[in-house]
Specification:
211 residues, alpha/beta, Rossmann fold, UDP N-Acetylglucosamine Acyltransferase, domain 1, 2 domains, 8-stranded mixed β-sheet, 6-stranded mixed β-sheet, 15% helix
């Protein structure tokens, strides 16, 4: 679990700032440095931590025991990078802001970030590398798939299933027992009353498939 150990954050962005803040406030890990593949970020800093370089910096440290988190909002990019990190010997941590409320029998997999003000109720399962963003609620017995992103202020009612790499836009409400497939995008502020298939683009109140 690397309790109290040093970690890296991959992603020198606004999302990275929020992840760093959550790590600091939780107090389980110490941020050592930041990485980012974007050209020109090496040698800069984020929240006072040095941006040490891109993923090649991690390859150069292969002799070390490296723990870290991917702080990239794009679901596909986050999935690919997390897989690369694991394949290259890194261990992904889980970050839970202390202002989040986590119920009994909740499972949260490695690589996932739970932001401030979130509530995840009993029996919910959150897959690897997911984002439960600021103020979102995930009610009892929900299943959130790998690398899904539950946007700020979103509310999933009980027994909702969200597929892998799906984005649920900010301020969306999903009624009980609805299933939203993998690789779908639900527009911000939607009200989802029925199932949504894999790969769909949908939005509105009530939520409808978009052309």
């Amino acid at each position: 679990m690397n309790e109290g150990g040093g970690v890296f954050v991959f992603g020198a962005s606004g999302h990275g700032k929020v992840v760093i803040d959550a790590i600091e406030r939780a107090g389980r890990h110490r941020v050592l440095f930041v990485c980012d593949d974007a050209a020109g970020k090496r040698g800069t800093s984020l929240m006072g931590y040095p941006v040490a370089g891109d993923r090649n910096e991690l390859l150069a440290r292969r002799g070390e025991t490296l723990h870290g988190i991917v702080a990239i909002g794009d679901n596909g990019a986050r999935t690919d990078l997390a897989q690369w990190l694991v394949e290259n010997g890194c261990t992904l941590i889980t970050v839970i802001h202390p202002a989040a409320v986590i119920g009994r029998e909740v499972q949260i997999e490695a690589g996932t970030v739970v932001m401030a003000g979130c509530v995840i109720n009993s029996g919910a399962h959150i897959g690897r590398n997911a984002i439960i963003n600021t103020g979102a609620t995930v009610d009892h017995d929900c299943a959130v798939g790998e690398a899904a992103h539950i946007g700020p202020g979103t509310h999933l009612c009980g027994h909702v299933v969200i597929g892998a790499r799906t984005l649920i836009g900010a301020g969306t409400t999903v009624i009980p027992s609805v299933r939203i497939g993998a690789d779908a995008v639900i527009g911000a502020g939607s009200t989802v009353l029925s199932d949504v298939p894999d790969g769909a683009r949908a939005g509105g109140t009530p939520c409808r498939l978009l052309a």
